[in-house]
Amino acid sequence: MDLSGNSCHSRLTAFLEKPRISHVDVKKLHMHSDIKTNKTSRWITGGFVLCLFCPLIFNAEQFAPYNLQGGANWWVSLALIVLGIYFLHLNAKKRWLCLPPAKQLISFLALGTLLTCLTAPHVIIEPEMSFHCIIFFLVITSLLWFLLRRFTLFLLIPCLILGYIESGAYIRYKVLFNSMLLAETMECSKEELLTYATATNISLLLAGILFISLSAYFYIRLLGRMQKRAIGGTILTLSFSLYILYPFVPNACTSFSQLGLVGSYKRCNRTIKDLKRASNAITDTLDKLPSPAAKPSCLPVLKGDEGCVIIFHIGESVRADRCGFNGYSRNTTPHLSANPRLISWKRCVASTPITVTSLAVLLTNARRWKEYTTPGDEDMDATCGSVLDLFKANGFSMHAFMGSLSRQSLRADKVLRLLTSACEKRHYTNDDVMETIDKIGENLDKAGKRNMFYLINNEGSHSPFYMYDHKNPPFTPTLHVLSPNPRYSEAVRNAYDNCVHYTDLFVHRVLQKLEGRPYVYIYVSDHGEYIGDYNGTWGRARATAEKDFFQKSQGGAGVCAFAVTSPEYEALHPQFSRSIQQLKESQKHTIGHEHFFHTLLGIAGIKTEYYNEKLDLCQPTVTPYTGTEPEDWPEHLLNNK
Ligand SMILES: [Zn+2]
Prior knowledge:
The protein contains 28 helices and 14 strands. It has 641 residues and is α/β, with parallel strands linked by helices. Strands 3-12-8-2-7-5-6 form a seven-stranded mixed beta sheet, sandwiched between helices. Strands 11-4-13 form a three-stranded mixed beta sheet. Zinc ion binds next to loops.
């Protein structure tokens, strides 16, 4: 008994003492391991924070265009290095920032990656931006968690579901949530919309909502369990790793604002804003114009089964002085320069610096646009709508090929829809304008002997001058920054020229598809672009803000305009060969956007009371452009062929 009593006592003592001893032990042990693991993570976190100063310290090439101070200064660098080392020391000592334990960190990264991949359309569209998308997601959700704690879920889940729908719609239908989609949805009937409510779509949606909500719940719960300084450390480490890698990703500066949650939010917000201002002066004016096809018109020289193709290509931001075939010192247009049938108007004056108003002038019989008239330009408003209506009325099958620049603002899309309402179909390009070539080819095969009219309106040389073959850029180095550090202007201009080069290739490929057919290809750019000239002017903001600046500067108003016709077209009718002969003659004139409505009608031989032969470049009686014109035409645009 004693023995057992003793043992009982000792066991009791042991039991009573054990917690005390073990408590202290465990705590010590815990602290020790905590210090050990956290020490490393604190140095890692600190190190990444230090990287923030990288561009200032090292002035590395990839940061330089963004480093507006114009390079590193040795004294500043030295001071920053000393400060940085002191920060590392303090962080290690005071335990400000660290990383969470490995298990938590892995779960955090895994859940974040999963949710991003499911809900950020850019992971699918631009896989090279996936890393950015994931980090963006982790950082923003962590910051939100600091502000809202578990209420973050109420904001997070709807956003994620919206992103999931967007991604799904992109995979299934190649559409993003955008203004053109909205404009089209608004015009759809209930029945048309219900065609998307298939069993597969509904089950995918419900399964997605359930899975995303659960994952988001676990994600937020995980954040709740993490130490605050570990979340802080993780956010900083991730953001700075993104910051360091950011300039290495091609196209990073343009895509950055479109990523993940932020992108979905921005696209939504823009669409709502767009909705509010969609009814504006341009759409109102165009809406009120009568269709030119409402009055009688005829096409006596064509029967309708000649298989002829008329292409009107409205280019984007292409200046005449940067085209090789106009005498630019760099051959940016090798194909067109070598084309013996090229007709180029070296001096063509754009009507406005804005795409939508330029489109309106080019396609209607307007000669100027109200906001951009100068004294003497009165009574030059449009009296009828789109010239495309007349081609449709005279037996042409109408198609429009648009680049991914359409579908970006409801206002522009509404204008485009009004001007292209005669088209049987609008074909949209998703990534590369070259996709259009195959679409045109397929369409031509289907068309047989029908007469076709194609309107092409794609990215061309729109900023940030990205539309070209990045694997084989003809002019290097390139950079896609909207308003670069002057040291890098030439690289941005190289990118601009590469886009012109790509447009040349595009036109060449379309012409190859047209070979053997009677065709007319007319190209004109909507406006020019300032590329660091005019005292460092970039883009077109100054053109809209400063009176007369646009019309008087060839960089903005002097646009590329040319035509290529086929011998087969000339052979169709003697009138056509006379017209083309005259078109060649007209190269000596300074022309304007106002000439294209009438030239299109003239070259096809469409008769209507809206036609004005004084503005038809196919007529010997044509009147050259009489409005305000650039005062600084360069030498190579002044000498006529
Ligand atoms: Zn434009």
